[in-house]
Design brief:
single chain, 13 helices, 0% strand
Length: 323
């Protein structure tokens, strides 16, 4: 069993160029299948027409997100010199406050290496970000192909099935839809708060808050701290606005993640926080950021499957924290 587990882990790592788009497509198909069912039930549309309409909506959303990312990158590049000046002023204030003379250093010796940070470093960062986006878009074509076949083939259409697969589909769809709604509310609130406070790239940070909200606990912390460099380096931000730009989104993340989400989602999955943390580490090592996003639903699916078999039921109890 140990050797088989290691072999499966190695296979998942080596096959990630194909497995990541396929697993993403499975979850996307399960999340989009309610929209297909609504069109078939209320609009009396044939399944193929409903699938095409759903994919059209998805492509429009992806196009809007791509436009948003492109506009935000151009804005970041345009403000790069201003960020560099603000960084130099911030470093100068920090160095002035430090007791450098007692250590035998001068302010010029400390600031000289920092002043050599070129604006081209921002350009390299933007190029790396653009390449990452292009890699994601290249994978999205394969994801789209998988989604088409899964939706046309009827993924998620057997709601009347009361067996293992039916229970698996219903619980996973409920999790995905609920988590998507909660994450969307989080992203919109974060975007509005940052926009009102005048933070650059507010909509991008709202988008990241939406995406990272799928990663329990860790994602909320990262989403809260992401605007920190822009807030600190923006020359137009006051100290009060900078503090509010971190405190209010953090409060939103804490309230939704620790109060609203548990009440809405309930204990249907019953996965212990330690199990979720270990799943984040494991799938992050195998599939990177995408693995961390998928860690919780994959662990939930594994727990449901473990519960259906007598030999693996102890593993389900361990994932639920019932030792």
């Amino acid at each position: 069993m140990v050797l088989a587990t290691v072999a499966v882990g190695v296979a998942l790592y080596l096959l990630r160029p194909v497995m990541i788009p396929f697993v993403l497509a499975v979850f996307f198909a399960l999340a989009l299948s309610p929209l297909v069912d609504v069109q078939m039930r209320y609009l009396r549309a044939p399944r193929l027409v409903a699938v095409v309409g759903t994919l059209a909506i998805g492509l429009v959303v992806l196009g809007l997100l791509a436009t948003l990312m492109s506009t935000s990158l151009n804005q970041l590049a345009a403000n790069a010199s201003g960020y560099q000046r603000q960084l130099a002023q911030l470093m100068s204030r920090v160095v002035t406050a430090l007791p450098l003379e007692e250590l035998g250093w001068s302010e010029q010796e400390v600031l000289r290496p920092l002043s050599k940070v070129p604006v081209s470093a921002v350009g390299r960062m933007l190029m790396g970000t653009t390449n990452a986006i292009l890699d994601t878009l290249s994978q999205s074509v394969l994801v789209l192909i998988f989604i088409v076949y899964l939706l046309i083939g009827g993924a998620g259409s057997r709601a009347e099935d009361t067996g293992t697969w039916g229970m698996l589909e219903s619980r996973v769809k409920r999790y995905l839809v609920t988590q998507a709604v909660i994450s969307a509310a989080t992203g919109v609130l974060v975007w509005l708060v940052l926009e009102l406070l005048g933070v650059d790239l507010a909509m991008v940070f709202g988008l990241f808050a939406f995406l990272l909200n799928f990663i329990p606990t860790v994602g909320s912390i990262i989403a809260t701290l992401l605007p920190l460099p822009v807030v600190l380096f923006s020359p137009d931000m006051t100290a009060l606005s900078a503090a509010l730009a971190i405190a209010i989104p953090g409060s939103i993340q804490f309230t939704i993640g620790n109060i609203i989400a548990p009440k809405v989602m309930g204990d249907s999955f019953e996965i212990h926080p330690i199990a979720i943390l270990l799943a984040l580490i494991l799938w992050g090592m195998i599939w990177g950021i995408v693995g961390m996003l998928l860690a919780t639903p994959i662990t939930a699916v594994m727990k449901i499957l473990f519960e259906r078999l007598d030999g693996t039921r102890p593993l389900a109890n361990i994932l639920a924290g019932r030792l």
